[in-house]
């Protein structure tokens, strides 16, 4: 449970600050960036736990590799959403 909370905080904060770095030029709100970051971090964490082969262990989501993958997954999904959306303000 603690691992999911940490992954959710990582994803939401990277999504929020990723939107702030891009200065909202893609037209996505801070909430939407946080939500996209959350989805990206959960997806990356699930895939990492699955690829490591310890999905049924109690502390599987407390591994540092899962947290790193969650951060990278959140950043990639926020960047991809902004890239596909296109620039709104030139």
Helical element count? 3
Give the N-to-C terminal Cα separation: 43 Å
The average pLDDT value, as a whole number, equals: 84
Proportion of residues in extended strands: under 5%
Which of globular, elongated, flat, extended, rod-shaped describes the shape?
elongated
Largest beta sheet, briefly? Answer: none
Count of structural domains: 1
From the alpha carbons, calculate the radius of gyration and give it in angstroms: 14 Å
Describe the structure.
With 90 residues, the chain is mainly alpha-helical. Helix 1 (2-21) packs across helix 2 (30-52). It has helices at residues 2-21, 30-52, 64-85. The chain is elongated, with a radius of gyration of 14 Å.
Keywords:
mainly alpha; 90 residues; elongated; 72% helix
Can you summarize this structure?
The protein has 90 residues and is mainly α. Helices cover 72% and strands 0% of the residues. It has one domain (2-85).
């Amino acid at each position: 449970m603690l691992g999911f909370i940490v992954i959710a905080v990582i994803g939401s904060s990277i999504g929020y600050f990723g939107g702030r770095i891009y200065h909202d030029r893609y037209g996505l709100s801070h909430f939407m960036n946080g939500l996209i970051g959350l989805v990206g971090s959960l997806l990356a964490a699930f895939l990492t736990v699955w690829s490591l082969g310890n999905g049924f262990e109690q502390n599987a989501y407390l591994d540092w590799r899962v947290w790193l993958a969650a951060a990278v997954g959140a950043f990639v999904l926020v960047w991809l959403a902004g890239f596909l959306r296109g620039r709104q303000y030139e």
